[in-house]
Design goal:
- Strands 3-2-4-1-5-6 form a six-stranded parallel β-sheet, with helices on both faces.
- It has ten helices and six strands, in the order βαβααβαβαβααβααα.
- It has 223 residues and is α/β, with parallel strands linked by helices.
């Protein structure tokens, strides 16, 4: 059995890719996995986050981001990550937006087991998932095995009908949608640059569990 490789991908910036990648990396690390976070975005947001978190008062650099993080905004990412990652790593790739850095994003899509598309429950965000699905289909011929892909509903308003409506619309379009939806909370929206503190009942634990369930029994990842 092996680890898990995940890419957070979307057409445009501001969809929650970096936030999702960083929170998931912390959850998987806290569960006892060896984690490698790959910042494939030329803007370097995840790496900047780790630097800022390490400077937070009372936090050591190792405690701020308790896993390995590398910057790799490369069109050869699918060839270079295997030389960096260990066999049992959970590899999480924060990809750049497809509209501006398609070559880098495509390289990530070629490499990972699971492609996660963060999507807010709004019609415009749902429409923007179509180019991502088209890219996934295009790189399929370049892969040895098919990739799994799934939508992660995020920035969801509590008790609003929009989440259920978006789930129904996405499934009607043929998407897999993770069971867990991430609520719109200040704890997530304002977490950039801060050390992450995962609570026992944090929703990101359930997101990680959903992802592990999708690769079971082929991987040995703890969630």
């Amino acid at each position: 059995m092996t680890g898990l490789t995940v890419a957070l991908a979307n057409l445009k910036p501001g969809t929650g890719k970096t936030t999702s990648a960083v929170w998931l990396a912390h959850v998987f690390a806290q569960a006892g996995n060896s984690v490698l976070l790959v910042d494939a975005d030329p803007s370097g947001s995840a790496l900047e986050w780790s630097d800022l978190a390490a400077m937070h008062p009372g936090v050591t650099p190792q405690a701020a981001f308790p896993f390995r993080i590398v910057a790799l905004p490369s069109r050869e990412l699918h060839r270079r990550v295997p030389d960096i990652a260990q066999d049992d790593d959970v590899v999480i790739i924060d990809t750049p937006q497809l509209e501006d850095h398609a070559g880098i994003a495509r390289s990530a899509l070629r490499y990972v087991d699971e492609i996660v598309v963060p999507c807010a429950p709004s019609p415009i965000e749902i429409n923007r998932t179509t180019p991502v699905r088209e890219e996934i289909a295009e790189v399929a011929s370049l892969r040895d095995t098919p990739a799994r892909s799934v939508v992660l509903l995020n920035r969801c308003i509590a008790r609003a009908h929009s989440t259920a409506d978006a789930r129904e619309a996405l499934m009607g379009l043929g998407y897999d949608v993770l069971d867990t939806a991430v609520p719109r909370l200040e704890a997530y929206a304002q977490s950039f640059g801060m050390p992450i503190r995962i609570s026992e009942h944090d929703v990101w634990r359930q997101v990680a569990h959903n992802l592990v369930e999708r690769c079971s029994p082929l991987c040995s990842v703890r969630s």
